[in-house]
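lol so apparently i was supposed to do this last week
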Amino acid sequence: MFKINENYLKLPGSYLFSTIAKKVSAYSAANPDKEIIRLGIGDVTLPLAPVVIDSLHNAVDEMGKAETFHGYAPDLGYEFLRNAIVEHDYKKRGADISADEIFVSDGAKSDSGNIGDIFSVDNKIAVCDPVYPVYVDTNAMAGRTGDYIPEQQKWSNVIYMPCTAETNFAPELPKETPDIIYLCFPNNPTGSTITKDELQRWVDYANKVGAVIIYDAAYEAYISEENVPHTIYECEGARTCAIELRSFSKNAGFTGTRCGYTVIPKELERDGHNIYATWYRRQATKFNGVSWPVQCAAAAVFSEEGQKQIKENISYYQENARIIASALDELGIYYTGGKNSPYIWLKCPNNMGSWEFFDLLLNEANVVGTPGEGFGENGAGYFRLTSFGDRENTIEAVERIKKVLANLSK
Ligand code: PLP
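anyway here it is w/ pyridoxal-5'-phosphate bound
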């Protein structure tokens, strides 16, 4: 008899962003004349860089001619792209990663979920609280998280590592030993980072207890301060405990173009098995690669001109973050992030709850942000704003927020 995967039935009602979308459409339907500014979802707004577009056009033309047509890509992705990744993202950082340890993919979200395929459901995961919801939900789908406890908005078999103002929004080593540890720096949602020494402590810990770290560095391009590691492989010993996820979404605007990559060093072994070989087997069976035009476009990001052009876009978003941050400074609102990250994580004023503040901004300022509570228990009372909007909207949103909060304090 047919049976559904019951793990899916355990998932709580709706994904955070669907709840937000429903609230926003209800408000828009009731107030069609109001212009809503979205500083909520982490999607970019600037178009692809000119060199990326040229490369896409050229590759599409190639697909139209027999002599230059490309069918299935190699399992790991094209070598020219993997070589460029190694040169720019690893060698420059003093990290020892070779081109055949890179698996080109359609993005970090799918890889962060798919990687669980190769791990036993008996493994226990540790995640930050607050957390990018995909890590937890994909493990729930796999049956690795136990039961959902609605009152606590937590799963019974997950180690939650609190990231609060007291911990500088970084996790502390957990008391209970996990098998898989998800770390994301610069962090979504808090925008926090950790130093190289702090990350080294995690690498040493994972090697000691035999855990695997899944290190999501999707926001690496936003790092502007010294002593913040750009890759976990800057740390000694990371090759024997860490998998790294990377994305072209936030550095080069590929959210709709889709490209990312996963790094697995060949000496990563657990339970007597080689993790690299297992992931290779999984990808070769379940994934048929990224299209020729998209891999060419990703390679163009690493050209001299490409690097210059994407840096202009990143600087644009960084300036938006600065505009939001200086308004919060003016208002005396506590926040973190924004410096090495496109996210600003603020404490809701007047001890408001996250959803209460969400409703206030939606109804009174027509600005949409993301309630911190949606990312976990420790996000309660916090709110995430993103710097991915356009400049005019960011300035306008900040002015509206200032007005609403000024009225609030009257
Ligand atoms: N990882 C984190 C932490 C993210 O915040 C996001 C997107 O918001 C992703 C991964 C998704 O990246 P991609 O677009 O490459 O799937």
